[in-house]
Specification:
Oligomer: single chain
CATH topology of one domain: Rossmann fold
Order of helices and strands: EHEHEHHEHEHHEEEEEHEEHHHEEHH
Shape: elongated
Number of strands: 14
CATH superfamily of one domain: HUPs
Helix content: 40-55%
Radius of gyration: 25 Å
Strand content: 15-25%
Distance between the termini: 70 Å
């Protein structure tokens, strides 16, 4: 491995766990550089102060330890814009990990500028999507930044080798971290993601202990939970009439989803780097939010706008999955999507029951639903049944022409 001796200071995305603690020490010993740590609170549900203490134990100056609560920014500026598009990668995945990476990358670059760092580093492996997402974000925001990806550079070949390095460098190792983890986990306020080891065989059902954000639908209550969600310009603003901040609202939806066994997904997906992988995702609040948003769009969006959004959604979702949040094409699509949400305001009523979310009511001051138009009863309407004959004949013209040709044959 050839190293870049010019590196003087690097900003590391640091969780405080064993792997990133090993990376921290490896950066110090391999590059001989000063390490600055950045730990983001994205609602992963872990106490983050131990990360500060561990960084200090590994020799990081207090002024070079950054811990930021990004939950509100994460939901307001990343999750909500994505949900305005109803984004689902390959029709199912709500992009919980994907949407967190550009925010972490953005904050790393901001800190690098602040402390005068000439490099950034992450703990993503060389087989996954996250290395791409982090690094596309870095380069988009700071084209000249040097990126250090230890998993692509170091010579460690096994878990035992990593443990041996940790022991040799006095890195504390919790008892439960000495053995091989049964699966890997990434979590934030939107979702949890579990991959690898016991989940690698796509034929084998995930063990129940893999799930951490939801109870089993079979164990969910036998009674319906009914809620309302209010929207303003495409963003959820209240639950049961109670106004909430973005992060608080998503937290509440997570609680409701968890209690009703909502939001589990067992998916074999196509990674950007070229391989298929199996992941178990839990997105309780996001699953409710998606159905609620589609419910309010159903009465406030024009048909042409709604159908165009649905046509563009797979491309938008793929851009986020592949790490192109900061690309001009994603920003162009976002402008179109946000334009479509100008009148997406109102209230949706939903029933939550044993893993299911059902929209049972929707109302809006901006509604395009006209009961007089759709009713089967007689009344003064702006629709004359006779007009349908000409409409049908005009649309049938090309089909009749084709039919005549086929008859000749």
């Amino acid at each position: 491995m050839s190293k870049t001796p010019a590196i003087k200071r690097v900003v590391l995305a640091y969780s405080g766990g064993l792997d990133t603690s090993i990376i921290l020490k490896w950066l110090q010993t391999t590059y001989g550089c000063e390490v600055v740590t950045f730990t983001a609170d994205l609602g992963q549900g872990e106490e983050l102060e131990p990360a500060r203490k561990k960084a200090e134990l590994l020799g990081i100056k207090p002024e070079h330890i950054f811990i930021e609560d990004l939950r509100e920014e994460f939901v307001r500026d990343y999750v909500f814009p994505m949900f305005r598009a109803n984004a689902q990668y390959e029709g199912l995945y709500l992009l919980g990990t994907s949407i967190a990476r550009p925010l972490i990358a953005k904050k790393q670059i901001e800190i690098a500028r602040k402390v005068g760092a000439d490099a950034v580093s992450h703990g993503a492996t060389g087989k996954g999507n996250d290395q791409v997402r982090f690094e596309l974000g870095y380069y988009a925001l700071e084209p000249g930044i040097h990126v250090i990806a230890p998993w692509r550079e170091w010579d460690f070949k096994s878990r035992e080798a990593l443990i041996a390095f940790a022991e040799a460098n006095q890195i504390p190792i919790a008892k439960d971290k000495r053995g091989e983890s049964p699966f890997s986990v990434d979590a934030n306020l939107l979702h949890s993601s579990s991959e690898g080891k016991v989940l690698e065989d796509p034929w084998v059902e995930p063990p129940e202990y893999v799930h951490m954000r939801t109870i089993s639908p079979e164990d969910a209550p036998d009674v319906v939970t009914e809620i309302t969600v209010d929207f303003e310009k495409g963003d959820a603003t209240a639950i049961n009439g109670e106004k909430m901040s973005p992060a608080t609202l998503l937290t509440k939806l997570n609680e409701l989803g968890k209690a009703n066994g909502i939001g589990r997904l067992d998916l074999v997906e196509n990674r950007f780097v070229g391989m298929k992988s199996r992941g178990v995702y839990e997105t309780p609040g996001g699953t409710i939010l998606l159905q609620a948003h589609r419910g309010i769009e159903s009465i406030t969006l024009d048909r042409g706008a709604a159908h165009l959004k649905d046509e563009l959604m797979p491309k938008y979702a793929e851009l986020i999955y592949n790490g192109f949040w900061f690309s001009p094409e994603r920003e162009m699509l976002q402008a179109l999507i946000d334009k479509s949400q100008e009148h997406v305001t109102g209230t949706v009523r939903l029933k939550l029951y044993k893993g299911n979310v059902t929209v049972v009511g929707r109302q809006s001051p901006q509604s395009l639903y006209d009961q007089d138009l759709v009713t089967f009863e007689e009344g003064e309407v702006a629709y004359d049944h006779v007009d349908a004959a000409g409409f049908i004949k005009l649309n049938a013209l090309r089909l009749r022409t084709l039919g005549k040709r086929n008859q000749r044959r």
